[in-house]
Design brief:
Layout lengths: L4 E6 L6 H10 L4 E3 H11 L6 H15 L3 H11 L5 E5 L4 H10 L2 E8 L2 H11 L8 H13 L2 H6 L3 E4 L4 H15 L1
Parallel strand pairs: 1-3, 1-4, 2-3, 4-5
Helix pairs in contact: 1-9, 2-3, 4-5
């Protein structure tokens, strides 16, 4: 019997979760990005995936289907994987952790942390459609993320990666972490 291990990568928007997730993916591990579920649902509804619309869809999914709704939608993707290690990027609540914990034999949470000013700057540079256009929108998004439970997930993390340096720094730290954990 294969033991399924789920590695969850969490952190506030712009902290560097995707860099850590990419290191696992480059090492051959399947990656499921929870934010893609929200963006896809937003587009499926025929609306633009901007900050206001993704906020509305995220809150509505959780209100209609419970606080673990986004994680539950990821389970189909988990069923189709052949690897015994699967990486999930973007877990935002303890209810989502519980969905994955019920599914896997082992669960590990990695939190990527960066200061708000650095995260805001990174989100601006990324220039994605759902990037906050102002500091006020950025702060509102942070508070919304915390309100759905992200602070609890961060507090329960097994590993904390501080990402205050360069892109090369987090890429190197991520590669080292992948080697250590796998």
């Amino acid at each position: 019997m294969i033991t399924l291990k789920i590695i969850i990568i969490t952190g506030m928007p712009g902290a560097g979760k995707s860099e850590v997730a990419t290191a696992f993916q480059n090492a051959g591990f399947p990656l499921i990005i929870m934010g893609d579920v929200i963006r896809e649902e937003t587009r499926n509804r025929g609306i633009e995936a901007n900050p206001e619309n993704t906020k509305k869809v995220m809150l509505e999914l959780r209100e209609l289907y419970g606080p673990g709704a986004v994680a539950t939608r990821c389970l189909d993707g988990l069923c189709n994987q052949k690897s015994n290690i699967i990486v999930i990027e973007g877990c935002r609540s303890i209810a989502e952790i519980d969905v994955f914990d019920d599914y896997a034999e082992e669960l590990m949470i990695i939190c990527v942390h960066a200061s708000p000013k650095i995260r805001f700057s990174r989100l601006q540079e990324r220039n994605r459609k759902d990037a906050p256009s102002t500091w006020e929108i950025f702060r509102e998004r942070d508070i919304r993320e915390i309100s759905v439970g992200l602070g609890g997930v961060i507090a329960l993390s097994d590993i904390m990666l501080i990402n205050e340096g360069s892109l090369e720094d987090i890429q190197n730290a991520s590669k080292e972490l992948v080697e250590k954990l796998t």
